[in-house]
Design a protein that fits this description.
This protein is α+β, with helices and mostly antiparallel strands and about 150 residues long. It is about 25% helix and about 40% strand. The protein has two domains: about 35 residues; about 100 residues, no CATH class.
């Protein structure tokens, strides 16, 4: 009986050792540095948050490309994308953006409606609440070169 227990313990330890070795190979620090370098290669000036807006009155859907730190207008809304990030393709897909959205009245007064993170995978998690417009993040990309 004692022998079976020691064989079982040896098999468990051997399996754990193989799992640790496999994990060590998968977490290559050189590969991690390459991923970080690709993410930081694009200047924040070149990043664009791609948003989708819906006018609930006319049922018109519009894709909005909002360069970071540049106010954009969508109907009566003023949208300011502060940051945008997208995971690399080898990871679980996720796009996040920090947005500030205000409703601009006819007299120029702004009512802040939303300030926070939006997640493409969970649009209802942090949604814009407005009687006329819906806005959510769909992508983060680099600005296309003009020429």
């Amino acid at each position: 009986m004692k022998r079976r227990g020691s064989r079982w313990l040896g098999a468990v330890l051997l399996t754990m050792g193989a799992a640790v070795a496999t994990t060590a190979v998968a977490e290559d620090p050189v590969e991690d540095l390459a991923i970080i370098a690709r993410r930081e290669a694009a200047s924040p000036k070149d990043l664009v948050a791609v948003l989708r807006g819906v006018d609930k009155i006319s049922a018109r859907v519009t894709d909005i490309e909002a360069p970071l730190n540049t106010p954009m207008r969508y109907g009566s809304l003023e949208i300011l994308a502060r940051t945008c990030s997208k995971r690399p393709p080898e990871e679980t897909p996720e796009v996040t953006a920090f947005l500030e959205i205000a409703d601009v009245k006819a007299d120029g007064q702004k009512d802040n409606l939303f300030s926070g993170w939006m997640f493409a995978s969970s649009p209802a998690l942090s949604a814009l609440e407005h009687p006329v417009y819906d806005v959510w993040v769909i992508d983060c990309k680099t600005r296309s070169p003009r020429g």
